[in-house]
Amino acid sequence: MIPLRPVPCRLLADCAGRHPSACLVSAVSRPAWRQSQTSRRPPLRHVFSGTARPARPKTALFFPGQGVQKVGMLTPWIEAFPATAKPIIEEIDHVVGYKLSDVIQSGLSKTLNLTDYAQPAIMATSILILRILETEFGFRTSERVDVTLGHSLGEFAALVASGYMHFQDSLHLVQQRAKAMSAATRRAEEEYGGEYGMVAVVTEPAYMQSLVAAIHKFVGSSSSPDSSEDRSPIDQVLIANINSKNQIVLSGNIERIKTLVAHVRQFLGHDPRAVRLKSDSPFHSPIMRPAVAVVRDILSGTSRVPGREGEDMVSWPDDAVPCVSNVTARPFESKAQLKDLLARQCLETVQWWDSIKYLDQEQKVRRWVGIGPGKVGRNLVGKEVGMRGKDKVKGGGVWAITDPSEIEEVLIGLQETEDLVDEE
């Protein structure tokens, strides 16, 4: 177990007026965590190669998608770790070309909620948290994690954590992707009219299979991203996300979605709950087709990172941690496939539930750590594998680091489950 240390009186005095997290995090002994991990370095790629088995339970690192943004979400990290956070924030602002940190810290919610700001803000905050874990606590993804994944936008942070992309390149790509998605939505509104967005549909697990089948039946070919492009966007609806055993997300024209949900309710004789999401664009729908070309074009270029000019934006190092694709629910298999799937991800269905089932049931991942704002990702994972303290968790646990005050629980939880034996 990680030794804890009392919070010095001086530190408690310094906490006056500061975010509580800035004081609570000092309870974790950072040097002790580093020392406790030095002898536990399992070989990489063993998760999918079927060769070496790690001495510890398999561990996944996952990152959130759009919708978790909140004004002030950087504040606790800046206050708890000012020396580490400041240069990262300067790097973020430099990459995007303006003070994104000001929008995150003191902007209006309606501004931060816009796709152009929300996507780079969430991705940047996620990596800032990961870098603080690395710098302040000696956490090494390549040594402590067996696989990464991210929900939609979160996939870009996962690729950075795994070692396939550099932070600056990935953040630039996210920024341009967000602009392309917003532009695609505006184009649909201007040319065809109507309102566009996303609606979560929640049902009982027993109805999920029939719900998905009914939606495909009613929307016809528009349920596929390969549907004919002559169909107007106002008629295009897609299942954007299959998030869990009882939740999917529909994307497209809002009136079309409402009509579809009414038909499904009548057809199934069941009343699934429909909830409008905080999204200004219909992500993962055919309307996003123009964004695919933008992402593909950027990925065909070279790195923007100083010292890597002229090199491929995507790397394929031998020591990279496997990363699961949203499109296939399986790890990327090559650099070319990664580029193709990452571009297609803009309009294809996010297979989140299949990804979690694959890692849980086939790969026997037993510890799950969410990194980034909000707890939506943790809750979705917990629905499938169980959550410590609430359900019968399969193995180690499901955690999330969204605030500095949660670091202690997660690091201690990982340490306590290092020698856990999978009974399955």
TrEMBL record:
Its EC number is 2.3.1.39. Residues 62-406 form the Malonyl-CoA:ACP transacylase (MAT) domain. It is an enzyme of class 2 (transferase). Keywords: Acyltransferase, Transferase. The keyword Acyltransferase applies. It catalyses: holo-[ACP] + malonyl-CoA = malonyl-[ACP] + CoA. Pfam families: Acyl_transf_1. This is [acyl-carrier-protein] S-malonyltransferase. It comes from Humicola insolens.
